[in-house]
Amino acid sequence: MTYDEFVDLVTRLWDEIPEEFKRELQGVHVLPQAKRDPSGLPGVVRLGEYTDPGPPSVFAGHVHLGRHIALYYGSFAEIARSDPGFDWEAETWETLLHELRHHVESLAWRDDLIQEDVAQLKALKRRRG
């Protein structure tokens, strides 16, 4: 799948999501690069990321920066190259909904999914030793 085809796919899937779930979200951005996971584990990439700057006192964030979802085409392409059965639409949909859940939880001042993500990363580190 080309970058432009991926953008079209993301746009189509995004349009299927009801507007009430997109409240206070400034947008979804498709970025061409792969994003390495900051864990430093070899071969681990991030497919997507939700950014919420939080209140001004948290990590120098500022509410005026807005809330965004980023999807990394390069990460999807990297995984697809090593997996002939890679389902672009299913993986994109799953990632988009995952990041949207981060957004909805953020609006409710919840971090359940963040805790799940952290636990999964810790489990992966243990398995890889």
UniProtKB/TrEMBL annotation:
A family per Pfam: Zincin_1
Protein name, per record: Metallopeptidase family protein
Organism: Oceanithermus profundus
Organismal lineage: Bacteria, Thermotogati, Deinococcota, Deinococci, Thermales
